[in-house]
Write a structure and sequence with these properties.
It is a single chain. With 319 residues, this protein is mainly alpha-helical. 74% of the residues lie in helices and 0% in strands. It is built from 16 helices and no strands. Helix 1 runs antiparallel to helix 2 and helix 10 runs antiparallel to helix 11.
Length: 319
């Protein structure tokens, strides 16, 4: 009996010490991994995060490994592997990983599309403090994918995050009012939310403001303002804005004396349409941009081309 009590005493006393030592080791590994990542030593960081997973099944390390594959840190990007790691981390309770897992399941990145499962993870992430995840859930709710269709509830879920300043939530509110269920579409509300997001230089917001100005038949927006919206989005590298910006400058009002495009408009049309042909994934858009470029080249001085091509290249290469 005394021997048994002694064993119990040893276990009770030493267990906290062992647990503390294990936690200290785990913290040390994670700290080393994070420092290596900050220093840009991707391979050292990756190995450390792997160790944290192998020895301690650390969910934050699992999520970070997913980021390596999502962002191509020191290896080729692989969305399938990234999503596999995100789902592991989501099960370990990492809110951002839960949000990313919802996106993975909604897009069918690593498993067949599963809207109901995506909705589950968006809900978990939002309840853990990622309020913008309610907007992703609302997007499913807008059309009834994986959840009961309820456009008005979708707006109600997303609005708090938008009011608190979440850029992604503000963009979702704009898109809901612009392209959502006909029962809730409202061009003025859409404009309000995109304008709010544009105050914080969200590239997508400027693009949609330009699109709304083109569609708004109740107000006459100056062509110069529409050009500015699309050019601002293009400058911030929102790819769909390249074609729209180029098209706007090409269709700008001609010089009253020469009856031709001004040199500035001609150059900008060439710049943005060239960028569109190199980055746009819309085949019709690329074809239209190439056709306009051919027309531009018939009037643009040949001596401009090398300099403009270099500017396009620099823009596309900048981070």
């Amino acid at each position: 009996m005394k021997k048994f009590l002694h064993m119990v005493f040893v276990v009770v006393v030493l267990l906290p010490v062992v647990t503390l030592a294990t936690q200290t080791n785990a913290d040390s590994i994670m700290k080393a991994a994070q420092l290596a990542l900050v220093d840009g030593d991707y391979e050292k960081a990756f190995v450390s995060y792997q160790t944290a997973v192998q020895q301690h099944n650390n969910p934050l390390a699992q999520f970070t490994i997913g980021l390596f594959y999502q962002n191509g840190w020191g290896r080729d990007p692989d969305p399938i592997i990234a999503c596999q790691w995100f789902e592991k981390a989501a099960q370990g309770g990492i809110p951002t990983a839960q949000y990313m897992t919802g996106i993975c399941l909604e897009q069918g990145s690593h498993r067949p599309i599963d809207y109901a499962a995506a909705a589950h993870w968006y809900q978990k992430a939002a309840q853990a403090g990622q309020l913008h995840a309610y907007c992703q859930l609302g997007n499913l709710m807008m059309t009834g994918r994986g959840v009961t269709k309820d456009p008005h509830k979708a707006l109600a879920l997303c609005r708090p995050a938008a009011l608190q300043g979440s850029l992604s939530a503000q963009l979702w509110m704009g898109k809901f009012f612009l392209h959502g269920d006909p029962a809730i579409q409202n061009l003025q509300e859409a404009y309000h939310w995109f304008a709010t997001a544009a105050q914080n230089y969200a590239p997508e917001a400027f693009f949609y403001l330009g699109m709304i100005m083109q569609q708004d038949t109740l107000k006459e927006h100056k062509p110069e303002i529409i050009q500015q919206m699309f050019e601002q989005a293009a400058t911030l590298k929102f790819v769909p804005a390249y074609f729209q910006a180029g098209k706007q400058f090409y269709s700008a009002q001609s010089d009253m004396h020469t009856h031709q495009l001004t040199a500035e408009h001609l150059a900008k049309a060439y710049l943005w349409l060239s960028a569109a042909t190199q980055r746009s994934e819309d085949r019709k858009e690329v074809a239209a941009a190439k056709e306009i470029l051919q027309q531009i080249l018939t009037v643009m001085p040949q001596t401009w081309r090398a300099d403009l091509d270099m500017k396009v290249s620099q823009h596309l290469q900048e981070n």
